Amino acid sequence: MLKVQPKQTLSMVTRDRVRLDADVYRPEGEGPFPVLLMRQPYGRAIASTVVYAHPIWYAAHGYIVVIQDVRGRGTSEGDFKLFAHEILDGYDTVQWAANLPGSTGEVGMYGFSYQGMTQLYAAIAHPPALKTICPAMIGYDLYQDWAYENGAFCLQANLGWAIQLAAETARLQGDAAAHQRLAAAAKNLPLGDVVPTRPSLLQQLAPDSFYHEWLDHPEPDKYWQQLSPKTYFQDVDLPMLHIGGWFDTFLRGTLRLYQEMADRSAYRQQLIVGPWTHLPWSRTVGALDFGPQANSPCDRLQVRWFDQFLKGIDTGLLTEPPIQLFEMGSNQWRFYPSWNASQPVVFYLASTGLAAIDDRDGRLMQNAKCKMQNSSETIQNPRSKIQNPEGYPTQNSTLITHNVLDILVHDPWRPVPTCGGHAAYPSGPQERSTLDSRTDILTYTSDPLTEALHLAGEVQLHLICTADTPSFDLHAVVSEVQPDGRVFNFTEGHIVVPATASTNPLILALQPTCISVQPGCAIRLSLSAACFPAYPVNPGTGSPAGKARLIDQQIITITVHSEAGDRRSSLVFSQI
User: Fold this and answer.
1) What φ, ψ does residue 550 adopt, rounded to 5°?
2) Residue by residue, what is the 3-state secondary structure of 18-80?
3) CB atoms within 10 A of CB 572
């Protein structure tokens, strides 16, 4: 480890004469040194230390580290407009950093979230000095991977972020009153206006916020095509280290970019996914401790990566499998050669029609005939110590699934609340046995496992369902039911079903996962028509989220069919 010189603050000027400021950390000793660059909008002193080591640590490994305020943020000049200037500003910054005194002229970039996006935008411009990037937790397709999920507006994440950026703008402008109001709103999101997704506070204090534009474009139109990195990335090819988290709201984007690059790149593409939320990346995630192996290895991995591609040191990375996934349950890292799917694991839905009333009624069955599997174990019902009350199907009995319907009634006055997962805060696995006891949630639970079940890859729900309104939402959560009755979610997905959609069967993509469900535990699928405030409450009218009035929200009745002719409702785990 090298000693590091005192931090310097340096400025550069973009091609349109805007000054951008950066903190520069230099190692002592004989150079020259490669440059590591991070471009971010939150004030450069933070330097993403919420998930990464401080820049001094990277500089001590023999790198000049540059942390820059993007245009209109921190002390940099100009007007901040979300992602609008990051391609050209990224190019100019990379080339400026490459020409710093003591630089080798080669630049690598790192950072997560917005700082991950600035890497993609810079790469689009093909700056000659940029040799590798390490994008973490990004929205490659900005519509599908960031703003919306299966047509559902990501309300809590988008609104919370918009308020944060608006508050920072107010701070930079010295508007103490606006900053105070926005800071208070960030702690208690304003969701009670005429149109709940359009709080008057944000319209008054941040009329130019990206948030309003995102609501105005509920479909993947030209607006999103012009804004998304994916549109311009086809001729970009660099070595890339992709970083994601099983409970990160942008995991879809991380995997989408990795799979595209792995399919076409001439360079090394490496993927690591931990059990983490968007932040922090630590062993304790939500309500669970995944053990010491879950602490982030990303700083050490990035140094190995940059040593390989910026210093030409053989670090051994190129001989290792390119995919490193944290397997929850066993709490260890597993390595894979590719993301290609193999034979799936399929569970079929079955019930006697009381899956909304009794959280033991709905069943997940692995055999096609949907018979109760033999089991010497039962799962303790968190609402009752009675395990086999009169009238409940006993072991070895048959569940009749023909023409059996499960009815789900959604009341917008008391929508099913968010409980962990990837799309809201607090994120991660949370104990949800009490939530599953609600009668507006359908639950389908497998028998306790007799041996560990390893699941790794994509997850889909194939559901035969209808509703009595032009539009409705479905939220699906897959959890592990532990022998003591506690229930912890490990993947979920949300979808808006429009009036024009065919729902027979509806295919809902859930968050990919990697988990070993241990013997004695069971798998549970929970279905609801809301997950608020992670996503807006669907009014049932067919109006998009940006126009749906609170007063128009309707009671929605959804009918779920376990079986209809040769079609079956099923939960499908694609294995890699």
Assistant:
1) -60, -40
2) CEEEEEEECECCCCCEEEEEEEECCCCCCCCCCCCCCHHHHHCCCCEEEEEECCCCCCCCCCC
3) 16
The answer to whether 466 and 412 are in contact (CB under 8 A) is no
Write the single-letter amino acid at 235: D
288 exposed, middle or buried (CB, 10 Å; 0-12, 13-18, 19+)? buried
123: phi then psi, degrees, rounded to nearest 5: -65, -30
Which runs of consecutive H residues, i.e. helices, occur in 408-468?
433-436
The domain limits of the chain are: 8-144+226-336, 152-217, 345-573
Percent of the chain exceeding pLDDT 90 equals 89
Position 473 pLDDT exceeds 60: yes
* H or E stretch covering 177: helix 176-187
Q: What is the mean pLDDT of the chain?
A: 93
CA–CA distances in Å: residue 136 to residues 140, 159, 391: 11, 21, 52
For CA atoms 85, 88, 91, 94, give the dihedral sign.
negative
How far, in Å, CA of 376 to CA of 262, rounded? 46
pTM: 0.94
* pLDDT for 379 beyond 60: no
Measured CA to CA, the distance from residue 142 to residue 140 in angstroms comes to 6
Q: What is the pLDDT of residue 400?
A: 45
Three-state SS at 109: strand
SS3 526: strand
Question: Across the beta sheet with 323-327, what order do the strands follow?
Answer: 8-13, 19-25, 64-69, 33-40, 103-112, 130-136, 240-247, 269-277, 323-327, 332-336
pLDDT greater than 70 at residue 542: yes
C-alpha–C-alpha distance, residues 213 and 191, integer Å: 18
Neighbours of 44 (CB within 10 A): 24
Fold of 345-573: Jelly Rolls (2.60.120)
- Establish how many alpha carbons lie within 13 A of residue 526's alpha carbon, considering only the half-sphere containing its beta carbon: 32
Which of these, 247, 236, 219, 380, lies nearest to 326 by C-alpha position? Answer: 247
241 sits in which H/E element: strand 240-247
Residue 99 has pLDDT above 70, yes or no: yes
Please tell me the distance from the alpha carbon of residue 352 to that of residue 301, in angstroms, as a whole number. 51
Q: In the chain, helix, strand, coil percent, each to 5?
A: 20, 30, 45
pLDDT tens digits, one per residue of 248-280: 999 999 999 999 999 999 999 999 999 999 999
Q: pLDDT value at position 398?
A: 44
What confidence score (pLDDT) does residue 187 get?
95
Hey, which residues does 506 pair with through a beta bridge? 463
Helix (H) or strand (E) holding 158: helix 155-172
Fold classified for 8-144+226-336: Rossmann fold (3.40.50)
Per the rule left: phi > 0, alpha: psi between -120 and 50, beta: everything else, 353 is: left
Write out the two tokens for 83: 């992602």
> Which amino acid belongs to residue 91?
Y
The dihedrals phi and psi of 345, each to the nearest 5 degrees, come to -105, 125
